[in-house]
Amino acid sequence: RKEVEQDPGPFNVPEGATVAFNCTYSNSASQSFFWYRQDCRKEPKLLMSVYSSGNEDGRFTAQLNRASQYISLLIRDSKLSDSATYLCVVNIPGNTPLVFGKGTRLSVIA
Amino acid sequence: NAGVTQTPKFQVLKTGQSMTLQCAQDMNHEYMSWYRQDPGMGLRLIHYSVGAGITDQGEVPNGYNVSRSTTEDFPLRLLSAAPSQTSVYFCASSRGGVDDEKLFFGSGTQLSVL
């Protein structure tokens, strides 16, 4: 099983729709989880961290399910500007660098 | 506020040539790293450094060398370029340890090896 797995998509959704992505991770001891956003031909940028209690930032909600070892990202009221690739990032215990998933591509259509 | 600066933005090499991708950060970050990104492969870690004088290998280190003589700079050297090294390269840094959440990325270098 790969350390971090994501559905590559693409997810094609109309403006205003709600869309959710999941990301599974293999190491049950992982403690830190993040979502990064990457626009086409640009560098990745931190979107939000994922806390045990879940967290929300405007239209974006991130949740952690430790029992099933996955994190999720929910985007409400999708905008055209949300079109990007969303990268799931997880730490591997033992002071090793963060592991990036391959990303889920989202296209929001007018 | 320059952040992480990568040069060049684009480069074309012939097989066998060598070159250095430059990366500099002005945030006094201890941790720096190099990734390559290929279609369908995601970001793959090449080398990383937790401080000046310390480097370590990532997932795909073969064919690349790094050094960290100062906190600010972390150059990536291609010793003898191969077509398999055609990729987009990103440098990243963070204030904290290797698993610090706030990774700052440079804008990338598009490298083509013919």
Overview of this structure, please?
The complex is a heterodimer of chains A (110) and B (114). Helix content of chain A is 0%, strand content 51%. Chain A is mainly β and 110 residues long. In chain A, a hairpin with a 2-residue loop joins strand 6 (55-57) and strand 7. By secondary structure, chain B is an all-beta fold. Helix content of chain B is 0%, strand content 51%. Chain B contains no helices and 11 strands. Chain B has strands spanning 4-7, 10-13, 19-25, 31-38, 42-51, 54-57, 64-66, 76-78, 87-94, 104-105, 109-113. In chain B, strands 2, 4, 5, 6, 9, 10 and 11 form a 7-stranded mixed sheet that branches. A 4-stranded antiparallel sheet of chain B has the order 1-3-8-7, with no helix packed on it. In chain B, a hairpin with a 2-residue loop joins strand 5 and strand 6 (54-57). Chain A binds chain B through residues 8, 32, 34, 36, 41-46, 49, 87, 91-92, 95-98, 100-103, and chain B through 33, 35, 40-43, 45, 48, 58, 90, 97-99, 101-103, 105-108.
Task: List its traits.
heterodimer; A: 110 residues; mainly beta; six-stranded mixed β-sheet; five-stranded antiparallel β-sheet; B: 114 residues; seven-stranded mixed β-sheet; four-stranded antiparallel β-sheet; globular
| Morphology of chain A | globular
Computed Rg of chain B = 13 Å
Low-pLDDT sequence parts of chain A: none
Query: Could you tell me the number of beta strands of chain B?
Result: 11
The CA-CA distance between the termini of chain B, in Å, is: 36 Å
Kindly report the average pLDDT value of chain B.
93
The number of helical runs of chain B is 0
Overall pLDDT of chain A: 93
SS element count, helices of chain A: 0
Q: Give me the count of strands of chain A.
A: 11
Q: What proportion of the residues of chain A is helical, as a percent range?
A: under 10%
| Computed structural class of chain A | mainly beta
Give the overall silhouette of chain B: globular
Could you give the order of the helices and strands of chain B?
Answer: EEEEEEEEEEE
Run of helices and strands of chain A:
EEEEEEEEEEE
